[in-house]
Structures are given as structure tokens and as C-alpha cells.
Amino acid sequence: MTDSIWDAIRDPDPFAANCRSRVLLDHVTSKWGVLVVVALAQKSLRWGELHRYVEGISEKMLAQTLRALEGDGFVVRDSKGTVPPRVDYSLSPLGRELAALLIPLVRWVGDTVQRSAEDAA
Question: How far is CA 51 from CA 47, 65, 66, 94, in A?
Fold first, then answer.
């Protein structure tokens, strides 16, 4: 058993300024990154379906988020060779592992907001 979080996290060390894990951490903990991963946890979605599902995300931000998550290995982009073109997005095995961690966080946030609203009333 370790004495502190500092002992548990050694390499890579996200607390170090030059650690590559910070880029990945930024992608998976951004507001849009979390919402896209959780949205894809249930089933694969087409770009338009995902854009409608994640309300408030701009087309540009959705495209950037999907590109980053795909580059990190969390999202799989499946382009069908049809006319009109069809592109489906789904989670990779690594993405499903990430979703399993993020879903409880999103649930906790929703519960906390609900409790705060009830306490304020």
C-alpha cells in the first residue's frame, strides 16, 4: 500500500509539466470528450445523430472531439463506401473501458446538481 497519491502515480507522472499523459487527460476529461464517450457507450451513432444527442456542441467542436478521441484510440470511425456516404462512430475496447469509468462520474454530477437544486428550493 502506498503512503500517498504521489507514490501511487509514478510513470507516467501527470503532475510533471512535460508528461504526455496530460494531452490524453485533457481529451478524456473535457466537457465534450466526456459527453461524446458517454453518448457512444450505448450504441454506435452517425455524426448527425451524435450532434443532435450532445446538445449544444458545435459542428466544429464535435469534429475536433471525435478526431482527438479517435487519435487516442477511444473512438472507431467506420466509413461505409455508400452513396450518400455513411460514417458510424463507436467506442473501441479502450473507449468502452473509459466509458465504464466516466458513466458513474456523469451520474454523480447529475445527482449532485439535483440535490443542490432541491436544497436551494
Answer: 6, 11, 11, 22
Distance in Å from the first CA to the final CA of the chain: 44
pLDDT digits (tens, 9 = 90+) for 94-112: 999 999 999 999 999 999 9
| Grid cell at residue 96 | 468502452
Q: Which of 97, 83, 84, 80 is nearest to 37 (CA)?
A: 97
Q: Kindly state the cell numbers that stand for 77.
A: 470511425
3-state secondary structure of 114: helix
C-alpha gyration radius of the chain: 17
Upper half-sphere CA count for residue 15 (Cβ side, 13 Å): 7
Helix, strand or coil for residue 44?
coil
